[in-house]
From TrEMBL:
Domain of life: Bacteria
InterPro entries: Metal_Hydrolase
Protein's name according to its UniProt entry: Amidohydrolase-related domain-containing protein
Length: 161
């Protein structure tokens, strides 16, 4: 789901998810790296690029067609939401995505999660653990409840409300 053709191929699945009120979870696929690259390379380069592509493709091809579909993006969508100003400056949408768009915390720390939440809104962030590579994020304060309970409940409800 990285371009118009991908959205066309996936249209029957997306239509069914929308029809039954189920969410779509977007996660990076296999990541190849040059054998000389360090082991962390795919997670920091290929996965991030895949999530950027998925985020911007959703804005361009998915959201206009399926505005009510709830979508959860792994790994804070590769931090793509932080590029909203740049996207708007280049002629892309200048608005925050619909209320049904969420990102998970994956293996990011509190400062990065807060930066993304400040742009999208704290009601768009859900817990993601990225185990076994990193433990789930715990803020240790009032921010834990929405990220761990309230926001995931909104993302994963199983019917239209």
């Amino acid at each position: 789901m990285a371009d118009a053709d991908g959205y066309a191929r996936c249209a029957p699945l997306l239509d069914e998810l929308d029809r039954v009120g189920a969410p779509l979870f977007v996660h990076p696929g296999p990541a190849a790296a040059d054998p000389s690259a360090p082991p962390w390379w795919p997670a920091m380069v290929s996965y991030v690029a895949q999530m950027h592509t998925a985020w911007f493709a959703w804005h361009e091809y998915g959201a206009p067609r399926l505005p009510g579909l709830r979508v959860g993006f792994a790994m804070l969508a590769g931090l793509a939401p932080l590029h909203a100003d740049r996207m708007a400056a280049r002629g892309g949408p200048a608005t925050v995505p619909s209320a049904g768009v969420f990102v998970d915390t994956s293996s990011y720390g509190p400062e990065i999660v807060e930066a993304v939440a400040s742009g999208l809104g704290p009601d768009r962030v859900v817990l993601g653990s990225d185990r076994p590579y990193a433990a789930p994020l715990l803020f240790g304060d009032a921010r834990d409840e929405p990220v761990r309970r309230r926001n995931p409940a909104r993302l994963f409800r199983t019917s239209h409300e």
